[in-house]
Amino acid sequence: MSSHLILFNKPFRVLSQFSAEGEKSTLADYIDAADFYPAGRLDFDSEGLLLLTNQGALQHIIASPDFKLPKTYWVQVEGDITDTALAQLQQGVTLKDGLTKPAKAERINEPKVWPREPAVRYRENIPTSWLSLQIHEGKNRQVRRMTAAVGFPTLRLIRYAIGPYNLDNTPVGKWHYISPSESLQNEVMQFEAHRKSKTPPSHRRRPSDKSQHRSPGKKVSHGEGVARRPTRSQSTSRSRRK
User: Fold this and answer.
1) Which terminus of the chain has fewer CB atoms gathered within 10 Å of its CB, N or C?
2) Each residue of 150-204: pLDDT tens digit?
3) What is the pTM of this model?
4) Alpha carbon separation from 237 to 190, 203, 210, 242 (Å, rounded)
5) Helix-strand-coil percent breakdown of the chain, rounded to 5?
6) Domain with 147 in it
7) CATH at residue 134
8) Which helix (H) or strand (E) is 190 found in, with range?
9) Where a domain ends, among 162, 182, 214?
10) pLDDT-derived band of residue 45, with 50, 70 and 90 as boundaries?
11) If DSSP codes are grouped into helix, strand and coil, which group holds residue 131?
């Protein structure tokens, strides 16, 4: 194994974690790879692409909106989505936690995907439609809240792509190792170089500075130094340290 990345097609109602939580299915039911952890999250009731890595820098870059890896979703909504609603999604939608950034949104034909278990509830008198939605953010349950805000609740949500990676040729419930793209490798190198270049602020005192600031000729043993310190209120000094 030479890759630091795993691509997994997560089924519906699987937690994006390895640790058990009640009777819910987890990644441990599908993936047997030591020291790999999800780079970002995919909700329990969402399906599709989940990337995992064993490298901290990769995990940060994939999960963080700061690095602007686009995430593309295939969304089945209730109702025949309108051009007005698509335009709203493209311009940005006001949610409780603020305005979303402009997104790429377009109507698509129903994609050829695996059947969901259980299936989406079918209503004879209410049509459904599909759209492709690409965002650069990571707000909690953002896609579902966006489509609801424009009047078309989400019925089924599949993440199709993250940056250059997509679900093509990966059946549901399956995973495989992949190689980081050149652009992703460059991001990691820059991130690591920036982290290594950081130095402690100059005003921070080094451990040896205490002894260097003592007046010459006044060296005392540890016991004498403690005895000559003025009495302080312990509760005050401790509260400042917290």
Assistant:
1) C
2) 999 999 999 999 999 999 999 999 999 998 888 888 888 888 888 788 755 555 5
3) 0.78
4) 41, 21, 18, 9
5) 25, 25, 50
6) 70-162
7) 3.30.70.1560
8) helix 182-197
9) 162
10) very high
11) strand
